[in-house]
Model the fold of this input.
Amino acid sequence: RAEEALTSAILYVISEDRVRVAVLKGNGVAEMPAFTRLLVENNYELSEVNLAVGELDDSYDLALLLAPQQDLSEDALKKLDAFLYNDGAYGKTLFYTADVTRDALPNLEAFLKEWGLVVGSGAVFETTPARTYQYQPYYPVAEYAEETFRDKLLDPSMPVLMPLARPLTVLFQAQDTRFNEVLLQFSETSGVRPASAVEGFSVEQAERWGPMPALVLASKRIYGTAGITQFRSNLVVSASTAMLDAFSIQNTSLANSEYLLNLLNTLCERQDVVNIR
Done:
């Protein structure tokens, strides 16, 4: 991996394009070292921020909220709102991943609903073996629902793995200044195992069938008089936290690392970057 390390070091020295990332702590969030290492190797500057005692100031471009086990307080959510509003300048991104082991997080769910997104209960499974990872039904691969980020991949045929995922619902595509776009989705042969299901569950007991969203890009946009977006903040919601795990990020047969880098580089407006995968 010497070439990767050297390339990353050279880019760090010559680049003036620094992206600061707040890795949110507290509330039992998940540790995803393979994902954070990927960001560090691609010259993202990471710092830990606990919303209970710390401040999410405007020096950060991106905030990561990965699978909190406990609900966020109203004060913490106000800090997230203020971060994304950025005194009217916007230009910020929040990346949230859902946890299949958690059920109700009412404050956080209300926050997401304002953006037009609902994280449902249960777990997504796939009935088509070719759309799974090593024939494991709860390790489905997602389909590309839009072309922009798919076409940036070196090989657009490579899949994105979304293991142990929660079902997502998009309440609207556009409402006032808020917009939602499904980036990845589970196939029409995917289903949802209810959270109340007991041992011996069969697919006939599924409470919902696909296609359904797997990764959604929500945004709040302010348009100028010419109809062009002048200001924008983003909320990326992933149905799966395990898509950031080592076996997903470091697997060279999967597009997880490259796809996420392309997405975050674009949202953080990084120019002329070389992805270290």
In short: The longest strand covers residues 212-223. The mean pLDDT is 93. The longest helix spans residues 2-14.
